[in-house]
């Protein structure tokens, strides 16, 4: 009986390890999509007439072709080591804290059981904030590497040193933290949505078939991505080494400044640039995560 109970309610560290491994595997498989997404978000319309044609991308397919032509297939995997480390730490931290917070809630019998939508969102958001706090430097380094020209690109430590040596100092490694706090709503919406859809579509069953897990992740993630895409675009612009020509080399100071600049110079809809790759990767990622983690 004890063994059956532990299988139904594994300790937080089991969720943490399985979540971390699943995130690393899924991210590695889909990393080329992330590379293209980052490059599309970092460029502006002004770049079209001011940079070489091979460095400006007209959509996903065009970006893949040009990256492979100029950098070879390894160019699609630029910054992968930093991303793997970031995802390993973030996956472990998020799943540990999410499991711990959710189990703590469920142990409090005075609270409504099972957790409602508000409680699910609160647990996922809290876990997201706690995990991002310690993993954001690796995310900043990864974005900087992805938006740096191949001939200037450095390793993880070299890129981190470059950021620290800039005007931002060591705080540059936490650039975009406030945007990250907003983006933490993404997993909150996703995981909260999964738990609610699990009840609505599959009568609350904890063990799901692979296609059921994929469906839950796909629907929940799509809703979250579309709602938060402008924040994601602004965060990429804030961390990117590549700046719009109109900035004359002056870095952005906040994600709000990035959003205002994009709306002013490119139009409101450009806050959703890179949505195709972002949505494709996110949906595939969440589906793979659900399948890998539950296995």
Explain what this protein looks like in three dimensions.
It is a multi-pass membrane protein. Belongs to the mitochondrial carrier (TC 2.A.29) family. Solcar repeats lie at residues 10-104, 115-200, 208-295. It holds the Pfam family Mito_carr. By secondary structure, the protein is mainly α. Helices cover 69% and strands 0% of the residues. Helix 5 crosses helix 6 (156-164), helix 5 (117-146) crosses helix 8 and helix 8 (185-202) packs antiparallel against helix 9. It starts with a helix and ends with a helix.
Topology:
Layout: H1 2-8, H2 12-42, H3 60-71, H4 80-107, H5 117-146, H6 156-164, H7 177-183, H8 185-202, H9 210-239, H10 255-266, H11 275-294
Transmembrane segments: 12-31
Solcar repeats: 10-104, 115-200, 208-295
Keywords: Membrane, Mitochondrion, Mitochondrion inner membrane, Repeat, Transmembrane, Transmembrane helix, Transport
In short:
This is Peroxisomal carrier protein. The chain has 295 residues and is mainly alpha-helical. Helix content is 69%, strand content 0%.
Roughly how many Å is the radius of gyration?
A: 20 Å
The class by helix and strand makeup works out as: mainly alpha
Following the backbone from N to C, one meets helices and strands in this order, namely: HHHHHHHHHHH
CATH topology: Mitochondrial carrier fold
Largest sheet: none
Mean pLDDT across the residues is 84
Supply the number of structural domains.
1
As residue ranges, the low-confidence spans are none
Classify the oligomer: single chain
Distance between the termini: 22 Å
């Amino acid at each position: 009986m004890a063994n059956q109970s532990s299988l139904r309610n594994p300790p937080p560290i089991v969720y943490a390890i399985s979540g971390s491994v699943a995130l690393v595997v899924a991210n590695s498989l889909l990393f080329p999509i992330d590379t293209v997404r980052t490059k599309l978000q970092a460029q502006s319309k002004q770049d079209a007439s001011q940079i070489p044609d091979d460095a400006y991308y007209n959509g996903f397919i065009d970006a893949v072709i040009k990256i492979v032509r100029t950098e070879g297939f390894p160019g699609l995997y630029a910054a992968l080591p930093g991303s793997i480390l970031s995802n390993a730490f973030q996956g472990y931290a998020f799943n540990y804290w999410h499991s711990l917070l959710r189990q703590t809630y469920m142990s409090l019998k005075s609270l409504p059981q099972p957790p409602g939508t508000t409680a699910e969102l609160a647990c996922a958001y809290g876990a997201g904030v706690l995990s991002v706090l310690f993993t954001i430097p690796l995310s900043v380094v990864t974005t900087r590497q992805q938006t740096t020209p191949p001939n200037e690109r450095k390793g993880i430590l070299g890129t981190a040193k470059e950021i620290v040596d800039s005007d931002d100092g060591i705080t540059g490694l936490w650039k975009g933290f406030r945007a990250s706090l907003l983006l933490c709503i993404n997993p909150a919406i996703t995981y909260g949505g999964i738990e609610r859809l699990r009840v609505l579509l599959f009568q609350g069953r904890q063990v799901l078939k692979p296609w059921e897990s994929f469906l839950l992740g796909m629907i929940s993630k799509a809703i979250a991505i579309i709602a938060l895409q402008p924040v994601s675009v602004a965060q990429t612009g804030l961390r990117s080494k590549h700046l719009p020509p109109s900035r004359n080399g002056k870095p952005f100071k906040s994600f709000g400044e990035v959003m205002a600049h994009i709306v002013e110079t490119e139009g409101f809809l450009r806050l959703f640039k890179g949505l195709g790759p972002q949505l494709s990767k996110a949906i595939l990622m969440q589906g793979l995560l659900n399948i890998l983690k539950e296995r």
